[in-house]
Write a structure and sequence with these properties.
The chain is an alpha+beta fold. Helix content is 38%, strand content 26%. It contains 4 helices and 8 strands; from the N terminus they run ααααββββββββ. The strands form 2 sheets. The protein has a 4-stranded antiparallel β-sheet with strand order 1-2-3-6, with no helix packed on it. β2 and β3 form a beta hairpin. The chain starts with 5 loop residues before the first helix and ends with a strand. The N terminus is likely disordered. This is Anti-sigma factor family protein. Keywords: Membrane, Transcription, Transcription regulation, Transmembrane, Transmembrane helix.
């Protein structure tokens, strides 16, 4: 039995399709065992059957056509081309999968790194209820006047040749136009600020400044615009 004959090619094809009887199958198997070329051809036929699926029954009614060898070779070439394309596609897919996995690992590591990294220590926030220490030379003093019922707490903060003044004043009748006056040791008076009393019970907190040398400040006076004094606080 040789693979050069038309009948042998038919037998190999029929064997691959499983249409031979038991005796014919044994004959083909015995010959294929001693023919390397036939084994290769049969292997390709079996691969073709696996790739193309079962042939329709009509293809086996009258046996292979006269040009069966030519059709067989064309089919085998087609199967080989498809196999090479599939191999290239498989290699491309594997490469893309490997690259994607590497990117996921890198990105995942960065994300995990951020997720498990300890949070930075919280920045200490200043407590608004705790005021900072006043600048050196700042004087805080209080005073009241039993005759008027007014009371004032003042803070005098030294600057370069002048002073800042904060005054918290209570006990002055509503509607009075008042001012805070910084009095120097030589009797010089500088108005630090003024306001209109809108409510006796609420009191007033006023910030101002006066062009008096810090070393010369003698007292802070709260009075109305007519010069009537409500309270004086010695410094």
């Amino acid at each position: 039995m040789t693979t050069d004959g038309h009948g042998d090619a038919r037998l190999l094809g029929a064997y691959a399709l499983g249409t031979l009887d038991r005796w014919e199958s044994l004959t083909v198997e015995d010959h294929v065992a001693s023919c390397a070329l036939c084994r290769e051809e049969l292997g390709e036929l079996l691969l073709m059957k696996e790739r193309l699926g079962d042939l329709p029954p009509e293809a086996l009614l009258d046996g292979p056509p006269d040009n069966g060898d030519l059709m067989l070779q064309r089919t085998l070439r087609r199967v080989r081309r498809e196999q090479r394309v599939d191999d290239r596609r498989r290699a491309t897919v594997l490469t893309l999968v490997a690259a994607s996995a590497a990117l996921v690992l890198v990105a995942g590591g960065a994300v995990v790194g951020r997720a498990v990294a300890p949070d930075p220590p919280p920045v200490a926030q200043p407590d608004p209820s705790q005021s900072a220490d006043p600048p050196s030379g700042t004087v805080v003093a209080s005073g009241d006047d039993p005759a008027t019922g007014a009371r004032a707490t003042v803070m005098v903060t030294p600057a370069d040749g002048w002073v800042r003044v904060n005054a918290a004043v209570t006990g002055i009748p509503q509607g009075e136009e008042c001012r805070v006056v910084v009095v120097a040791a030589d009797g010089t008076r500088e108005v630090a600020g003024s306001w209109l009393v809108s409510g006796e019970d609420e009191g007033t907190n006023m910030d101002g400044s006066a062009l008096v040398d810090p070393e010369d400040v003698s007292s802070v006076v709260v009075e109305n615009v007519q010069g009537d004094q409500f309270v004086e606080v010695p410094i």
